[in-house]
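Weekly puzzle thread! Below is a chain. First person to post its structure in token form gets bragging rights.
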Amino acid sequence: MADRQREAADAGPQTLWFSPPDGDHRPRRALTRERVVAEALAIIGAGGVDALGMRALAARLGVVPGALYRHVRSKEQLCDLVVDGVLAEVDCRPGRSPGWAGQVKVLAGRLRAVLESHPGIAGLLKTRDPLGPHSLALAEAFLAPLQQAGLPARQTALAFSLIYDYTLGFALSSPTSVNEQRVQDTVTRNKLHAFLRSLPPDRFPTLVAFGEHVWLNNRDERFSAGLDTLVAGLDTAQRPRRRRSESARQS
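Winning reply:
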């Protein structure tokens, strides 16, 4: 009898309920900077950057807003931490593609893939200039092969900005946007092509002729074509300098 009484006392009053009520006895997850950043990223992914507010984040975490400031100084610092955490997912190791151009293309493709897997982050990157460890590592990974191209320092930096901005801009046109969804759906795309062909040819002759070739489900092809054009332009700009260097060595 005494043993049963001790067991009941150890079990506590919670065992007397068929459907136990919620209580404060359950252990709460510790609030850490990692949790704060992860939940902020989840809010951005679900509702965009504008949905992220310190009060909304605190409510999601089940804490008072003041508790967040023990882990981040401000919303601005929180955004930088979110961005740097996402960029940490980009594989910055040199690709197997030979030459500087191939390495730049591989890295840009990796960056695009990561940004498209985190809706809203490309837009956040366009409004901030993060200088965290992973954003610095990404810049280094881009600049190293561009330096191998032999461009002067200023043109190397400009080339990095062009390729980086192009990749961010492309990721901003999310695969889930209305335009992308329209061309990905075969039925809708065919209706759009029929509509373009039905336009008055005297007013829209080029749209009638080429419209169905513009609105295609070719997102990867579009990204590669734009990147190839950028890199080819950089290579062309470098050729006169390369020829002068070769002439100087021969003379």
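Puzzle host: Confirmed. Bonus trivia for everyone else. The two ends are 107 Å apart (CA to CA).
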